[in-house]
Amino acid sequence: MLRLFLFYSLKFLMLTATGGALWLMGLILFTRIIPSFPQDGANPVDGIVIFTGGETRLKVALSLFEQKKGKYLLISGVNPHSTLAEMVAHNPLRSHITLGYAARDTLGNAEETTAWARDYHIKTLRLITSNYHMPRSLLELRHLLPEVQILPHPVVGKSFLQPKWWLDPSTLRLVIQEYNKFLFALIRRPFEDFQGLLRVKEKA
């Protein structure tokens, strides 16, 4: 009995150690795909979308839009209690600005953007969000909009400008939280695709 207990305990420890090592390797790879610079930042696009969550993101989006780097602008995930509607009302290009109130998370942002992009026949799209949030945002959006060219335009926070930002506990904690969410989205996606396929077969 003791021998069996030791066998399973050792097996559990080995699996835990292997899982931990894989998770750590994934985290290192994740930090390498966090972008620091916009892709083709000078090129104009059909549409610009910002996933709300910070004042700096909004400033970048409005600046690009007013420089006519995009024909249409979507601000996704707007708080219904914000004053954005009043601010947009005074913008001379307000007829080309859409405020999206439906999204509550990143997947919701992607779904809201997908509907908007298809309504406005968007073929090239510039995505603005924080740099650490960009990998998951691209994962969700590119899956729903495979026909659209999506150019990442990361907004880099001050904490990421340090040469060794990972030594800052709060920044590292933020990245680890985002990495875990990215893993969950990566695992969730195939299950949702499979469920969608089953629904299509049931209707056929």
Give structural notes.
It is a single chain. With about 200 residues, the protein is α/β, with parallel strands linked by helices. The protein has a domain of about 120 residues: Rossmann fold (3-Layer(aba) Sandwich), CATH 3.40.50. It is about 55% helix and about 15% strand. A 5-stranded parallel beta sheet has the order 3-2-1-4-5, with helices on both faces. The model has no long low-confidence stretch (mean pLDDT about 90).
Number of helices: 6
CATH class of the domain at 45-160: Alpha Beta
Question: Which segments are poorly predicted (pLDDT under 50) over 5 or more consecutive residues?
Answer: none
- The percent of residues in helical segments reads 40-55%
Total strands: the figure is 5
Structural class: alpha/beta
Q: Percent of residues in beta strands?
A: 15-25%
Output the radius of gyration: 21 Å
Largest sheet: 5 strands, parallel
Order of helices and strands: HEHEHEHEHEH
Q: Quick check: average pLDDT? A: 88
- CATH H level, superfamily name of the domain at 45-160: HUPs
CATH architecture label name of the domain at 45-160: 3-Layer(aba) Sandwich
Task: From the 3D structure, determine the CATH topology of the domain at 45-160.
Answer: Rossmann fold
**Major β-sheet strand ordering:** 3-2-1-4-5
Q: What sort of overall outline do the alpha carbons produce when their principal axes are compared?
A: globular
Q: Give the termini separation.
A: 55 Å
